[in-house]
Amino acid sequence: MSEHVTVVLPDGSTMEVEHGATVEDVAYGIGPGLGRDTVAGLVDGDLVDKVTPLTEDCEIEIVTEDSDVYRQVLRHTGAHVFAQALQRTHPEAKLAIGPPTDDGFYYDVTGVDLDEETLAAVEAEMEAIVAADYDLERVERPREEALDIYEDNPYKRDILEREAAGEDPVSFYVQDGWQDLCEGPHVDSTGAIGAITLLEQSAAYWRGDEENDQLTRVYGTAFGSEEELAAFIERREEAEERDHRKIGREMDLFSVPAHSPGCAHYHPNGMRIRRELQEYIRDKNDDLGYEEVCTPELNKAKLWEPTGHLEAFKEEGEMFAWEQDDTEYGLKPMNCANHAHIYDEGQHSYRDLPVRFSEFGTVYRNEQSGELSGLLRVRGLTQDDGHAFIRRDQIESEITETLRIIEEIYDLFDLEVLYKLETKGDNAVGDDDIWREATQGLRNSMEALGLEYSVEAGEAAFYGPKIGLDARDALGREWTIGTVQLDFNIPERLDLTYVGEDNQPHRPVMVHRALLGSFERFMGVIIEHFKGNFPTWLAPEQVRILPVSDDNIGYAKRLKNRDLSEFRVTIEDRSWTVGKKIQQSHDDRVPYMLIVGDDEAETGTVSVRDRFENQLADLDVETFRAQLDTEVQQKRVEPTIVRNG
RNA sequence: GCCUGGGUAGCUUAGCGGUAAAGCGCGUCCUUGGUAAGGACGAGACCCCGGAUUCAAAUUCCGGCCUAGGCUCCA
Question: Which domain holds residue A563?
Answer without folding.
Answer: 543-633
